[in-house]
């Protein structure tokens, strides 16, 4: 297994997982319960992590790079898939999880 993504925000790691799943890459989340023990690990942060099989690490990283390669826009954007409006700082549609990079015009 290889670590391909980690973020302080559990929901963001979850989004990465579903994004990878859509591309047929199975992933495993670790440390997802870290926040419940935060008080005991105050001197270093334990962020939720997304792990994939060794052979999936390279394609997974490419997908995640694409996903992160996003919004420097300061305006809301409209999802081309479901037509919902997402805030500028969202890299994926809040409603259907379509990445901004795939739906922006
Ligand atoms: Zn959408």
Order of helices and strands: EHEEHEEH
Question: Looking at CATH, which topology of the largest domain would you report?
Answer: Alpha-Beta Plaits
CATH class of the largest domain: Alpha Beta
Strand content: 15-25%
Mean pLDDT: 82
The helix/strand class is alpha+beta
Provide the list of bound ligands, each named once: zinc ion
Within the largest sheet, what's the order of strands? 1-3-2
Number of alpha- plus pi-helical segments: 3
Q: Give me the count of strands.
A: 5
Helix content: 25-40%
The span between the termini is 36 Å
Low-confidence stretches: none
Shape descriptor: globular
Key features of this structure:
single chain, 105 residues, alpha+beta, Alpha-Beta Plaits, two-stranded antiparallel ribbon, 3 helices, globular, binds zinc ion
List the helices and strands and how they pair.
Elements: E1 2-6, H1 10-22, E2 27-30, E3 49-52, H2 57-68, E4 77-78, E5 85-86, H3 100-103
Antiparallel strand pairs: 1-3, 2-3, 4-5
The structure holds zinc ion.
The site of zinc ion has 8 residues, from loops.
Descriptive overview:
Helix content is 28%, strand content 16%. The chain is an alpha+beta fold and 105 residues long. The chain has 2 domains: 1-69, Alpha-Beta Plaits (2-Layer Sandwich), CATH 3.30.70; 71-105, no CATH class. It is globular. The mean pLDDT is 82. Zinc ion is lined by residues 79, 81-82, 84, 93, 95-96, 98.
Please summarize what this structure is:
Helix content is 28%, strand content 16%.
């Amino acid at each position: 297994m290889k670590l391909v993504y980690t973020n302080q925000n559990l929901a963001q790691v979850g989004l990465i997982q579903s994004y990878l799943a859509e591309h047929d890459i199975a992933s495993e989340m670790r440390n997802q319960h870290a926040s419940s023990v935060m008080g005991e690990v105050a001197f270093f942060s334990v962020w939720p992590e997304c792990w994939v099989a060794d052979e999936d690490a390279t394609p997974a990283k490419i997908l995640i790079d694409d996903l992160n390669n996003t919004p420097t826009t300061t305006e809301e954007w409209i999802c081309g898939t479901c037509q919902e409006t997402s805030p500028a700082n969202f890299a994926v549609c809040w409603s259907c999880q379509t990445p901004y990079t795939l739906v922006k015009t």
